[in-house]
Amino acid sequence: MRSKLERSSVGSGTTWEELGGYARAVRVGDRILVSGTTATGPEGVVGVGDPAAQTRFILDKIETAIRQLGGAMHDVVRTRIYLRHVADWEPVALVHGERFGAVHPANTMVQAQLIGDEYLVEIEAEAVIGSGDAL
Description:
By secondary structure, this protein is of the alpha+beta class. The protein has a single domain, classed as CATH 3.30.1330.40. The protein contains three helices and eight strands. A hairpin with a 2-residue loop joins strand 4 and strand 5. Helix 2 runs parallel beside helix 3 (89-100). The N and C termini lie far apart (35 Å). The mean pLDDT is 95.
């Protein structure tokens, strides 16, 4: 007999979530999957022209979603980073390292055509609740 997994989700209030029919993050069982996240605040783009500032804002937004679903940043097992300009890799990597230096999630970083000219970085994350407890 199959056990039924519980599913819950959270939003961050951006217009894209409603328009595109998706959640900021979804939890199924002990897994949390966070959608591609940009530096979008209540007033629009945060950190215009500054990839490190955008990365900090994005990781804070990701952390909020993960916490709302019962996880923590040390539970993150995978990140995917999309860059508008490949030359921005180092400041973005340094901020990622500040936040995940002790966690060491699997990571991919690629150049991509992001939607919205002022967005320099977009990040996805996956977490498994409890996986970082031993760190």
